[in-house]
Amino acid sequence: MDISSSGLRVLRQIAECGSFTAAAERLGYTQSAVSRQAAALERSTGTTLFERRPDGVRLTPSGLTLLRHAHTVLASLAAAERELAGTVPRTELVRLGAVPSAGAAILPAALAHLAVADPQTTVTTRESTTPSLIRALRAGSLDLAVLTSRPPHRPFDGESPRLHVETVADTELVVAAPSTGEFAGRSRVHVDELVDAAWIASPSSRSEPLLGVWPGLPGRPRVIHSTRDWLTKLQLVAGGFGVTTVPSRLSPVLPPGVSLLRVDGAPPEIRRVLVARLPGHPAPAIATVTRAITSTA
């Protein structure tokens, strides 16, 4: 097989982005250039690497096999480039992804602990949704990811081999409401009272569900404001412009003017926080960062 490093980089970006168009934007290529690279890879390997679907592109089992080897090849090339340039790092780098709620509630304590316990480990972070972080793990552009799941906590994807997953903590979903107005002075609310509420939620897509509205809310929710940013959501709540859902573990970082309400009349909504990585024996630095996250959460 005659496979170029640029072809492997295109493969990795398609795996992470889930589409040829998004991969082209990330790489600074045209969409047709990415399509040509993908076709050349399939010709070189003599097999189908990409499955074209209505919701994007996924790697076939053969594509996933090539992706696992691409991790090793591209990492070795990057190490050679650094060594030849005389820029071999003095610390071990771990690329960590996290869902937004974990960024506020977990990462600061974990990184502070790590700075004292193992200053030779450097961590870079990226915030995104659980589906996007899983794709990044599979593509090899992240080493670890802090994710969330809801019961019955099925595997995150159908790919093989399964991701290695460790439980960090369970947290209850609650409603963040203005401290003044309709719910002032309360610590609980019945789910029926939320039917006509003004909701502040994250935009949804086919692969990423609506976040911020109480799950199973009767009827169609009235979403007034749509934003992915947690700070914006909570400031809108503080201003009296609506309500949103948050994990209860975010209580220490709530802005003034926001109260948390537990919901009656509906089953408890428990969210599990997990740390995930590719299967196999982890590098020492990855194991160190995992311990920092699980021990400080």
Concise structural overview:
The protein has 297 residues and is an alpha/beta fold.
Helicity, as a percent range: 25-40%
Mean pLDDT, nearest integer? 87
Q: In DSSP terms, counting alpha (H) and pi (I) runs of 4 or more, how many helices?
A: 9
In what range is the share of β-strand residues? 15-25%
CA-CA gap between termini: 47 Å
Query: Strand count, sense and closure of the main sheet?
Result: 8 strands, mixed
Structural class, judged by helices and strands?
Answer: alpha/beta
Number of strands: 12
Radius of gyration computed on alpha carbons: 22 Å
Topology as a string of helices (H) and strands (E): HHHEEHEHHEHEEEEEHEEEH
The backbone outline, from C-alpha atoms, is globular
Model regions low in confidence, pLDDT < 50 over at least 5 residues: none
